Q: What sequence folds into this?
């Protein structure tokens, strides 16, 4: 089913791209747009994950450089029955995380240093389980390709006036009105596609993520903390790449809006309420308990206080001069 959805989305985004080309340059512009869109679809399939990770300067970690975090993801992936994804950390004070990759066999999950420094062990596990749920649901391909194409469509719309103003009526049958439509409607349409994708998939990933980690209330607590901090701590990379906003567990852009068509994510309170309801469904564990693949005795315990911020030498794993160590190693 997700393969069909991906194909439908690619067809829609390609048609939108061609429509912009037609508005700007007539049939010739439409054909050029078709060639560009086909090339971008192919390129995005193989490289969109690398582009997103590069945009956020994410660094891959392993069991030696970030043992606790890496082993947590490994345990969660085993719970979900998934291949072990690549694990990344990106240096940003805003707590957030995202997943990417064209399929579960080529997936990657990334967490910010802010997330690892401000959330408890169980909350981080809930967040990473949510991202693994996106991998398992095969949302990552459609989300990363959408980010790439939406950014291209928005850019093409922004340049519509420049290109359209130099075209005669023969090449641009709609004249200046067509250029205005391309400038306004195209980026708006691309934005709506992103919003629809994120909103319809977040609830499903929340539920599956809670099942993977076994602690719906831990994920609910993480969402509350991330949403509260995201409004106060800017993510400058996300502000420069707004087309990637729908990939994050919580909207990384400043000014989260209400739960309507113009929000990149469902309202956080609604997501928390759904997780709280789910916690009651956990037989014998209304408090949202469970396991991330380790017994309670074996799993390292950690208080709810934040990990001290040590800058680039984060205890979660990235030091510029020596192999970093995890916070509970």
A:
């Amino acid at each position: 089913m997700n393969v069909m959805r991906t194909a439908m989305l690619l067809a829609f985004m390609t048609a939108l791209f061609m429509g912009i080309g037609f508005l700007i340059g007539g049939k010739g512009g439409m054909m050029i747009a078709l060639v560009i869109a086909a090339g971008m679809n192919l390129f995005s399939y193989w490289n969109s994950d690398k582009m997103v990770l590069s945009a956020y300067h994410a660094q891959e970690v392993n069991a030696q450089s970030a043992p606790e975090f890496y082993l947590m993801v490994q345990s969660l992936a085993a719970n979900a029955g998934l291949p072990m994804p690549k694990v990344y950390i990106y240096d940003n004070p805003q707590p957030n995380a995202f997943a990417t990759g064209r399929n579960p066999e080529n997936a990657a999950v990334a967490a910010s240093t802010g997330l690892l420094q401000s959330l408890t062990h169980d909350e981080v596990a809930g967040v990473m389980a949510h991202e693994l749920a996106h991998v398992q649901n095969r949302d990552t391909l459609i989300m990363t390709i959408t980010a790439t194409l939406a950014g291209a469509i928005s850019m093409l719309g922004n340049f519509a006036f420049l290109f359209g103003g130099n075209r005669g009526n023969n090449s641009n049958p709609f004249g200046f009105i067509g250029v205005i439509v391309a400038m306004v409607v195209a980026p708006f349409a691309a934005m709506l596609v992103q919003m629809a994708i994120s909103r319809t998939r977040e609830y499903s990933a929340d539920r599956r993520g809670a099942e993977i980690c076994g602690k719906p209330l831990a994920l609910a607590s993480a969402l509350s903390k991330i949403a509260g901090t995201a409004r106060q701590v800017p993510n400058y990379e996300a502000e420069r790449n707004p087309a990637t906003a729908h990939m994050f567990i919580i909207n990384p852009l400043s000014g989260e809006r209400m739960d309507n068509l113009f929000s990149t994510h469902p309202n956080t309170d609604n997501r928390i309420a759904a997780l709280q309801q789910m916690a009651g469904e956990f037989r014998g564990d209304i408090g949202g308990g469970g396991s991330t693949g380790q017994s309670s005795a074996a799993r390292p315990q950690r208080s709810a206080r934040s990990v001290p911020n040590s800058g680039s030498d984060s205890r979660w794993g990235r030091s510029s001069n020596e192999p970093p160590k995890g916070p509970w190693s």
About this structure: The longest helix spans residues 2-55. The chain is about 55% helix and 5% strand. The two ends are 42 Å apart (CA to CA). Residues 2-281 form one domain.
